[in-house]
């Protein structure tokens, strides 16, 4: 009889479990448009081919702002050359209108994209990406781009609004009729940091080696441009126009600047914003303006540079490096140095601690079967944490990973661990009492009842004896 009762209880427990409790039931479905992933921050959609990169066009608009993408292989875009789309080539990801802008996040993962050809002079927002808003784009390396567009054209992004672009670089040629830049055509309330461009830029109106037009509260930090720039309205080696709320910090330019306008500058063509600790080579840019970037001789800017008046306050231990055998002797970004040693010790420690943390926790639907001395999380929480650990492990195993990627992986895993720990709950399981324990409890209840009855009897007797 007792065995039958236990069996019935077990069956009742099994069939009362919600569908989400079954393994794999609450996992996001695989998307055949990509190599893997589920599109979340912890498990971004993986891109390994040009076709998969092109599939990002299917995830535009405000409703896709929570989508995440990552490159897992180098990409060759030669299949989207002048023989594609009536000679137009690549169609930029994101365009005008809330339903067409790109609002997701894209991690280039340090991989290289080659063969970008986009010949769309009558189309606004030219580049690999056309129009991005509230986006994060990082670690993208574009080589030998050929981009021609109309309003807002850049090698990587046509226009970036309230977005972040970090640790990315472009080489090639960019031509735009209005706001053209080697990296981005226009930066609107956006930040650009640790980026570079070695692109030849031709602009009809505001051209810059890195960015064409810097508007509202936008910033360029720890970045540089080395390509030639020409423009009609304003042209600068780094930036065409810096608006009054824009800022440039710890950056430089070296490319020749020319144009049919008096608004030319070695660093900035037209400046009403702030420029600090930023320089340009007056010999190679063929410019000599002041007040919007500090002119220096080539010898002052190349290794060994003039430490008394150039690159003052720059971080040459974690952001910049300078050697005579790299970048023609000018400073380059730390992430661009393939020979730099990569320290993965902190990442290894973080992964080891995360695995131990994961293994100390029980997966449960509601914790009712978990001992109070233990803690539990839901299957969904555990899956997210395992994905974060797997992502960190992938960076650790990547022999081509550079230091910034490793540091970012450590930070991401720390954040995932904090979220995981916050989701932990103590178990609520209460073990059934034995026969002896039940008898003891019954005897206690009897004694307590007898005492209370006696007290009540005494109270009643006292009341009526008055």
Task: Characterise the protein shown here.
This protein is an alpha/beta fold. The protein folds into three domains: 28-338, Pectate Lyase C-like; 346-426, Substrate Binding Domain Of Dnak, Chain:A, Domain 2, CATH 1.20.1270; 435-466. It has seven helices and 35 strands. It has a 15-stranded parallel β-sheet that branches. Strands 1-2-4-8-11-14-18-23-28 form a nine-stranded parallel β-sheet. α4 packs antiparallel against α5 (379-397), α4 (345-359) runs parallel beside α6 (403-422) and α5 packs antiparallel against α6. The radius of gyration is 31 Å and the shape is elongated.
**End-to-end distance, in Å?**
58 Å
List segments where confidence is low: pLDDT < 50 over at least 5 consecutive residues. Answer: 1-29
CATH architecture of the largest domain: 3 Solenoid
Radius of gyration: 31 Å
Provide mean pLDDT, rounded: 88
Tally of helical segments: 7
Which tags fit this structure?
about 475 residues, alpha/beta, Pectate Lyase C-like, Substrate Binding Domain Of Dnak, Chain:A, Domain 2, 15-stranded parallel beta sheet, 35 strands, about 25% helix, disordered N terminus
């Amino acid at each position: 009889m007792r065995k039958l009762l236990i069996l019935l209880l077990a069956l009742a427990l099994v069939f009362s479990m919600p569908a989400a409790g079954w393994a794999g039931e609450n996992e996001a479905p695989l998307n055949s448009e990509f190599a893997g992933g589920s599109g979340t921050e912890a498990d971004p959609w993986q891109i390994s081919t040009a076709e998969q990169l092109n599939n990002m066009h299917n995830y535009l608009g405000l409703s896709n702002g929570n989508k995440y993408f990552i490159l897992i292989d180098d990409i060759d875009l030669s299949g989207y050359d002048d023989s594609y789309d009536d000679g137009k080539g690549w169609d930029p990801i994101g365009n005008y209108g809330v339903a067409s802008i790109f609002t997701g996040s894209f991690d280039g993962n340090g991989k290289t994209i080659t063969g970008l050809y986009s010949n769309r002079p009558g189309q606004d927002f030219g580049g690999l990406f056309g129009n991005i808003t509230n986006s994060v784009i990082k670690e993208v390396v574009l080589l030998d781009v050929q981009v021609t567009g109309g309003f807002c054209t850049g090698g990587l992004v046509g226009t970036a609004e309230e977005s972040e672009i970090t640790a990315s670089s472009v080489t090639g040629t960019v031509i735009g009729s209005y706001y053209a830049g080697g990296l981005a055509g226009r930066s609107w309330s956006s930040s650009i940091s640790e980026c570079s461009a070695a692109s030849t830029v031709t602009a009809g109106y505001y051209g810059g080696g890195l960015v064409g037009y810097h508007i509202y509260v936008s910033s360029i930090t720890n970045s540089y441009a080395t390509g030639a720039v020409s423009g009609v309205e304003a042209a600068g080696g780094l930036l065409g126009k810096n608006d009054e709320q824009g800022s440039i910090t710890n950056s430089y330019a070296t490319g020749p600047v020319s144009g049919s306008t008096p608004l030319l500058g070695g660093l900035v063509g037209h400046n009403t914003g702030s420029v600090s600790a930023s320089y340009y080579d007056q010999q190679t840019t063929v410019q000599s303006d002041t007040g919007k970037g500090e002119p220096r001789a080539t010898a002052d800017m190349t290794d060994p540079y003039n430490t008394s008046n150039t690159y003052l306050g720059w971080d040459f231990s974690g952001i910049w490096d300078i050697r005579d055998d790299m970048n023609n002797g000018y400073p380059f970004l730390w992430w661009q140095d393939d020979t730099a040693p990569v320290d993965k010790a902190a990442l290894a420690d973080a992964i080891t601690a995360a695995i131990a943390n994961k293994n100390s926790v029980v997966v449960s639907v509601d914790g009712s079967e978990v001992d109070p001395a233990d803690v539990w999380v839901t299957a969904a929480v555990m899956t997210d944490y395992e994905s974060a650990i797997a992502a960190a492990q992938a960076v650790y195993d990547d022999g081509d990973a550079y230091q910034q990627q490793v540091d970012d992986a450590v930070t991401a895993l720390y954040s995932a661990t904090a979220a995981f720990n916050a989701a932990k709950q103590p178990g609520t399981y209460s073990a059934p009492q034995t026969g002896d324990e039940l008898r003891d409890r019954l005897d206690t209840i009897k004694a307590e009842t007898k005492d209370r009855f006696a007290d009540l009897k005494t109270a009643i007797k006292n009341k009526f004896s008055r």
